[in-house]
Write a structure and sequence with these properties.
Pathway: Purine metabolism; GMP biosynthesis; GMP from XMP (L-Gln route): step 1/1. By secondary structure, the chain is an alpha/beta fold. Helices cover about 30% and strands about 25% of the residues. The chain has a 9-stranded mixed sheet with strand order 2-1-3-4-11-10-9-6-7, with helices on both faces. The chain binds xanthosine-5'-monophosphate. The site of xanthosine-5'-monophosphate has 14 residues, from α11.
């Protein structure tokens, strides 16, 4: 397996993604956890140093342990990772002062081509588009290194010590804006001897085995939301331990139209699982009354969720484990909670609200997977395609699609509008092209005219984005006809809304959800 040492870049996860696409198993660990002992135990076949926001020039800035250079395995340093490698191996790094580079840049080859980059510079123009994002830059490379590519503001854009198999680049090969970045990773993992044989089929068998080992004869409670993640978790567990599993479906009153009935029918009747339908909407909506701060909403919901679980767990004899559909991106995002290097953008529902002491041990069989890998696993497990293909739905549900205070009234309106919108998308055959679509009800009312009367109702915003992994997203380019038709339907069919807008913000700078 491959080790990615995280120095806090916002795009570290994308490195893992690129490697998974190459069927290489890798894990991201924050630099604080990577000690000499850790390295020995992990025994990586290759190591990648991520980027990060720090400056190697600063006292106490993040470092990998020196021993990483003695492992005898290939190392790839990216951005901050390059700088830290140069700094530790005897090179020199200087502060920006007019040489900072953010965004698109072109790298041209210097010296001879380097094995790890073979396939690059193939477009005939002799240059390669890359994505840069750095303030500091390497001013002198370490002994043993040579320069293989240069950009106007990064004279050492691509460097390598071919003998020791240390590679270091100033740009970010993991982002889409470095179109041939995958080639670099491909060559790097091949150089490290990976065969690219990590598949979903193997993952499924391995996961079932691991669950059985971890759980033994104990009873597991699984939080089932009806979303893809928790559904796959439940079916996987059901396959692994059968009746030792009880699913608890917490209805927090923040679900979409008819969602609760659909989930209960599918898992209780179709799959024959033990399923408790916990209707706790009064509790959640009561506690959320008057709360309008997004983080407070998330934390409140996360906390109540755990409370409710504990309550139901305590009623089930010898329940020792709680299963959660935590995904890899959740794990990484949550690193910042334990003092990890990256900045918290939003507290994540699954991990963020989890108290230290909850009396139940955790089973998280999807912890290592990205969303599309979960879908592939769901497919392996025989879940219906319509279910696997569902758009993601966040744990805090409609709460984060209702900016400002949440009321039952607003939620009802939101549910109806959302149902019309999704119906429109399905009717026009656009559902599968879109990563996620939903309505957000805005905390403003506006004046309108219907028939001969004045209306004073809520405005709503339609959101639809395309994305590969939820990390970045583009708004979906609906036709004006579609938008117009949908607005008319919503206003006609949903009492309480008299104005419809379309959100055309991409991520970044926006996020997909409104809160
Ligand atoms: P943002 O809004 O951060 O969302 O761009 C990225 C993706 O994550 C989903 N999301 C969540 N999923 N619990 C979840 O299970 C959460 O707390 C949560 N917050 C956001 C969001 O719907 C989108 O797909």
């Amino acid at each position: 397996r491959l080790l990615i040492i995280d120095f806090g870049s916002q795009v570290t996860q994308l490195i893992a993604r690129r490697l998974r696409e190459l069927n290489v198993y890798c894990e991201i660990h924050p630099y604080q956890n990577v000690t000499d002992a850790f390295l020995k135990d992990f025994a990586p076949k290759a190591v990648i140093f991520s980027g990060g926001p720090a400056s190697v020039i600063d006292e106490g800035s993040p470092r990998p342990p020196e021993s990483v250079f003695d492992l005898g395995v290939p190392i790839l340093g990216i951005c901050y990772g390059q700088q830290v490698m140069m700094h530790m191996l005897g090179g020199e790094v200087l502060r920006g002062h007019g040489t900072a580079e953010f965004g698109r840049a072109w790298v041209t080859p210097t010296e001879e081509r380097i094995d790890v980059l073979n396939g690059w510079f193939m477009d005939g123009t002799g240059r390669e588009q890359v994505w840069m994002s750095h303030g500091d830059h390497v001013s002198k490379i370490a002994p043993g290194f040579k320069v293989f590519g240069t950009s106007p503001n990064a004279p050492f854009a691509i460097t390598a010590d071919l003998e020791r198999r240390f590679y270091a680049v100033q740009f970010h090969p993991e982002v889409h804006h470095t179109p041939n970045g995958k080639t670099l990773y491909e060559n790097f993992v091949r150089d490290a001897g990976f065969k690219g044989d990590w598949t979903m089929d193997a993952y499924r068998d391995e996961a079932i085995k691991k669950i059985r080992e971890q759980v033994g004869d104990a009873h597991v409670i699984c939080g089932l939301s009806g979303g893809v993640d928790s559904s796959v978790t439940a079916v996987l567990l059901h396959e692994a331990i059968g009746d030792q599993l009880t699913c608890v479906f917490v209805d927090h009153g923040l679900l979409r139209l008819h969602e609760a009935e659909e989930v209960v029918t599918m898992f209780r009747d179709h799959y024959n699982m033990k399923l408790i339908h916990a209707d706790e909407s009064d509790l959640f909506l009561g506690e959320l009354e008057g709360v309008s701060d997004p983080e407070e909403k998330r934390k409140t919901i996360g906390r109540l969720f755990i409370d409710v679980f504990q309550k139901y767990a305590s009623e089930i004899d010898d329940a020792d484990f709680l299963a959660q559909g935590t995904l890899y991106p959740d794990v990484i995002e949550s690193v910042s909670f334990s003092g990890g290097p990256s900045v918290t953008i939003k507290s994540h529902h699954n991990v963020g609200g989890l108290p230290e002491k909850m009396g139940l041990k955790l089973v998280e069989p999807l912890r290592e997977l990205f969303k599309d890998e979960v879908r592939a696993l769901g497919h392996e497990l025989g879940l219906p395609a319509s279910f696997i293909g569902r758009h993601p739905f966040p744990g805090p549900g409609l709460a984060i699609r209702c900016p400002g205070e949440i009321t039952r009234d607003k939620l009802d309106i939101l549910r109806k509008a959302d149902a019309v919108y999704i119906d429109q998308i399905r009717k026009h055959g656009l559902y599968d092209e879109i990563w996620q679509a939903f309505v957000a009800i805005l905390p403003v009312r506006t004046v309108g005219v219907m028939g001969d009367g004045r209306t004073y109702d809520y405005a709503c915003a339609l959101r639809a984005v395309t994305s590969v992994d939820g990390m970045t997203a583009d708004y979906y380019p609906f036709s004006h006809d579609f938008l117009g038709e949908t607005a008319t339907r919503i206003i006609n069919e949903v009492q309480g809304i008299n104005r419809v807008t379309y959100d055309i913000t991409s991520k970044p700078p926006g996020t997909i959800e409104w809160e």
